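Example 5.3 — Nitrogen fixation protein NifU
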Amino acid sequence: MWDYTDKVKEHFLNPRNVGEIVDADAVGEVGSLACGDALKLFIKLDEKKERIVDAKFQTFGCGSAIASSSALTEMVKGKTLDEALQVTNQQIADFLGGLPEEKMHCSVMGQEALEVAIAKYRGVDAPVHGHDHEAMEGELVCKCFGLTDVFLKKVIASNKLHTAEQVTHFTKAGGACGGCIPRIKELIAEVMGEEKKAVATQRPSKLTNLKKMQLIQETLENEIRPQLWADGGDLELIDIDGATVQVAFRKACAGCASSGHTAKFVQEKLREMVSEDIVVQEVQG
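Solution (predicted structure tokens):
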């Protein structure tokens, strides 16, 4: 049984903005009844066509789909279209106090519907999701849910996914027959490789001690700890002495037989994103 927050339950039992806007300025539809989830989003703009004054939805899906759709409509009201496009699926989940990872695809669906609605309003090619894979950009990867490599790589990159299981939770890809799991793993490796190349070109060639310390802390918080959290672990920064970074592992990582491998992973990530001379030391306490 999934552990839902009180806010998820509230938006499921008392969803906001359910219904249809007859004279909507923009409408976005994503999903498929065959997949088990479908969402239709309606947007109404003010007289100047600058800001969203109303948003409603119709959805077929689970409690998380209803709650995510309800949250999305509340979040976009009062925003310009450009501001609304900045709303991510993670922000939708955060608005609800978090979603079980197995239900994150519901927040992704809301983000997709918003993108489609705004693209159609602006008269540009709308992102196509769902089973209409002939109209989708890229190579079809998941035949069961009609998802391409372009779409999956976008979700992997934007949500920093590192396992095929996470990709399934966020998109459903691989959740039926499982035949596309090997290809999903390849896509993850491709995204990680692209990120490494991008970081390598952006990494400063010379750092002051203060800047190095700041980058180490930012990398630990934004890149490393989220990956440890996904496996129930964590770490704490103990000290930074020149190029030596001392960390203590917490939760599932504490006392783990593979903590040496985890320390090596942390070291490689810091060398990749901060400086090649960094050495990570695990300490107890």
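Remark. The beta strands are 26-32, 37-45, 52-60, 140-142, 147-148, 233-241, 244-251, 279-282.
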